[in-house]
Write a sequence for this structure.
């Protein structure tokens, strides 16, 4: 032991590993000595932004965590858990894989999918659905096209092979993401609430197993890599990108499900960021115990791997399992059956320290609590300041923008813009039907809806964030993200339950970037409290930057919201498609003369400087409650929210599935372009049959919400203010094919 511990790490080595000088001094104080290189490497990954949340944890603690359906709160386990009745729970989480995807888009995205699914089944839940939220740069650039193709193929290949349907998502393009794309992966699973597997180590003497794949040199220090800016030199960090094997993950899933039916498990955790280091330290700290780990017993892919390489490897499809002493043969038998490694690599102790050995020599001795989030890991107070652009954006006035003469031309241009056009080119590469649970493949809805077999219920889920809104006003923009997620759940016939978040921002040491982060947290808290959708956990990804004219510029702040909702009666799942000619079309909610931060303003007019669109949280909440009642009482037959592209795009999207059309009249007191293309919030379009009309009107009057009769459904013609806007078949063709044309070569 002495010979190794005497090889003290230097400050230069610590800084090279991503630690700051003051942090290295703090580690010396914790240990009472200078750490060796292996120990320094352990602290470097565990105290990285990606693992410790050292620059965000103080604000994350302010988010609401209590709600009517909560079973496992944020930070307690690998993922959040909400009660869905009938003795069942829904485990769900979203995480980022941004930096790996920027360098190696296929593997970066694929392993993001693999990692988020392991978080779900490590708790004993079987994954049933996936979503993803993707951000890319200027679609005309060759690198953007390369990134899009790689990411989409990586998600599709891994998810399809693993056998979990992708039931929804979003794709957004803006030049702020040119260097640094965002790849956020969401997964949800179902669990018997009596069979939750905890990520906690207990019982001194209990054996510790590593199960699944062998450990290689891929992904070494991936957590530290994810905690710094992407630069021109980042290509040299390719070993930090993990390599995934979906077939191995499928075997691991089935072995884990089988193991969960036994009494052999004490605790289990996925080996994601920081690999063996993270799982051994976090499980020990959670149980107030320690571990002794023998690294030479870890199955490896390469010979002569060094201790720090084994500890920091982020090779995929691996988990750490603490087993009841005497039940070792149960674990080995199950994993042998599935042709997977299951090797005993250590045991639980009562020391509170994690000690690592290699070939009989101790190579590391660290107190577990000092390494983990909420324990001894740093919790920094960061400065923040309002950027100058914020007040400049508020000076925007709609009178500055000339109203186009040909609104049909504008409408058709919007339908073909990458942020609005159909994402068919993307989702056709995903399998949405595997598992036979998806209820919205042929019945489009504002949220993905998944059948809970054996019950009368379904799960609704969505991922949402308009990052242009958040950039314009972080607090309001994030309130809108939460509200839109709730609105999509409600429009699908569900009741919002809880959220998970993926907080993608720039460098936290930049006061203006951190101001955006703080504003987003404040907005998220306010909206989540209003909708009673607590935060179950998620992920913070800082250091997302793009180089523009030699200057590092943060990406649009992107607090992606993943929301789960419960559909109590699956017969009440609501679709967005118009059903028949002659049905009346109503707008539920307030509308204003507002085009701020709209796709119309930003892309058609090229005006980037404007505030967030009109939003009132109380109005939004009341409107959503009214829509819930309309669906529950069978008073509408199609429901779709107004969001990107405004009312015109919503009407076209409702018309396309059955190739129907619409004949509407705009409000003469509001600019026609604002009425059709503005993105003011809190509005939903519904269609109503002649038989439903009287009760619909009575119900909405009693609710006190604003309604506007827009017009009626036609056989296929689009007409606005008696002007012919063409036929839906023409619009549908342009909408469906526009995005794919960018990737034909």
């Amino acid at each position: 032991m002495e010979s190794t511990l005497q090889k003290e790490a230097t400050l230069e080595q610590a800084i090279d590993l991503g630690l700051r000088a003051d942090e290295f001094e703090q580690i010396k104080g914790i240990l009472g000595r200078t750490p060796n290189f292996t120990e320094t490497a352990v602290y470097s990954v565990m105290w990285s932004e990606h693992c410790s949340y050292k620059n965000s944890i103080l604000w994350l603690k302010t988010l609401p965590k209590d709600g009517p359906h909560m079973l496992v709160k944020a930070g307690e386990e690998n993922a959040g858990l909400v009660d869905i009745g009938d003795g069942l729970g829904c485990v769900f989480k979203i995480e980022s894989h941004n930096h790996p995807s920027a360098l190696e888009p296929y593997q970066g995205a694929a392993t993001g999918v693999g990692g988020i699914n392991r978080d779900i089944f490590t708790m004993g839940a079987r994954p049933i659905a996936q979503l993803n939220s993707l951000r890319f740069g200027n679609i005309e650039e060759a690198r953007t096209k390369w990134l899009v193709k790689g990411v989409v193929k990586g998600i599709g290949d891994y998810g399809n092979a693993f056998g979990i349907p992708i039931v929804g998502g979003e794709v957004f393009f803006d030049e702020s993401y040119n260097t640094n794309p965002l790849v956020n992966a969401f997964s949800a699973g179902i669990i018997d609430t009596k069979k939750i597997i905890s990520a906690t180590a207990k019982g001194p003497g209990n054996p510790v197993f590593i199960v699944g794949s062998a450990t290689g040199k891929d992904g070494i220090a991936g957590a530290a890599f994810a905690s710094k800016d992407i630069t021109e030199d980042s290509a040299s960090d390719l070993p930090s990108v993990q390599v995934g094997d979906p077939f191995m993950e499928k075997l691991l899933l089935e072995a884990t499900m089988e193991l969960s039916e036994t009494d052999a498990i004490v605790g289990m955790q996925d080996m994601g960021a920081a690999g063996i280091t993270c799982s051994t330290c976090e499980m020990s700290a959670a149980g107030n115990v320690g571990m002794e780990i023998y690294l030479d017993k870890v199955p490896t892919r390469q010979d002569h791997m060094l201790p720090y390489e084994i500890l920091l490897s982020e090779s995929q499809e691996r988990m750490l399992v603490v087993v009841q002493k005497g039940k070792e043969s149960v674990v080995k038998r199950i994993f042998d059956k599935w042709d997977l490694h299951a090797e005993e690599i250590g045991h639980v102790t009562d020391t509170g320290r994690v000690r690592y050995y290699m070939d009989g020599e101790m190579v590391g001795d660290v107190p577990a609590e000092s390494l983990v989030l909420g324990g001894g890991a740093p919790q920094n107070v960061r400065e923040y300041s309002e950027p100058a652009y914020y007040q400049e954006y508020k000076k925007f006035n709609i009178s500055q923008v000339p109203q186009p003469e040909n609104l049909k031309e504008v409408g058709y241009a919007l339908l073909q813009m990458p942020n609005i056009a159909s994402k068919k080119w993307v989702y056709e590469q995903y399998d949405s039907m595997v598992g036979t649970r998806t209820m919205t493949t042929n019945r489009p809805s504002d949220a993905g809806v998944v059948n809970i077999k054996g019950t009368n219920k379904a799960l609704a889920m969505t991922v949402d964030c308009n990052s242009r809104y958040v950039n314009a006003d972080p607090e309001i923009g994030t309130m809108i993200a939460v509200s839109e997620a709730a609105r999509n759940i409600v429009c699908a016939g569900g009741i919002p339950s809880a959220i998970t978040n993926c907080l993608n921002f720039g460098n936290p040491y930049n006061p203006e970037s951190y101001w955006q982060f703080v504003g987003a947290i404040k907005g998220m808290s306010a909206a989540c409290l209003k909708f009673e959708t607590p935060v179950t956990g998620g992920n913070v990804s800082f250091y997302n930057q793009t180089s523009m004219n030699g200057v590092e510029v943060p990406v649009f702040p992107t607090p992606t919201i993943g929301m789960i909702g419960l559909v109590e009666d699956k017969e009440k799942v609501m679709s967005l498609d118009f059903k028949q000619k002659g049905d009346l079309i109503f707008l539920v909610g307030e509308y204003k003369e507002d085009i701020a931060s709209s796709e119309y303003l930003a892309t058609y007019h090229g005006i980037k400087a404007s505030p967030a669109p009109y939003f009132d949280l109380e109005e939004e909440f009341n409107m959503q409650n009214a829509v819930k009642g309309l669906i529950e009482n069978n008073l509408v037959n199609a429901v779709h929210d107004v969001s990107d592209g405004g009312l015109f795009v919503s009407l076209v999207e409702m018309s396309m599935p059955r190739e129907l059309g619409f004949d509407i009249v705009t409000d003469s007191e509001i600019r026609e372009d604002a009425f059709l293309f503005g993105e003011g919030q809190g509005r939903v379009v519904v269609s109503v049959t002649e038989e439903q009309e009287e009760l619909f009107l009575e119900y909405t009057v009693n609710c006190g919400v604003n309604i506007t009769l827009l017009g009626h459904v036609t056989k296929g013609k689009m007409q606005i203010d008696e002007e012919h806007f063409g036929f839906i078949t023409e619009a549908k063709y342009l909408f469906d094919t526009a995005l794919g044309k960018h990737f034909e070569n």
User: Anything to note?
Assistant: The CA atoms of residues 55 and 380 lie 5 Å apart. The chain has a mean pLDDT of 92. The chain has three domains: 1-65+198-379, 76-196+431-570, 388-427+576-745.
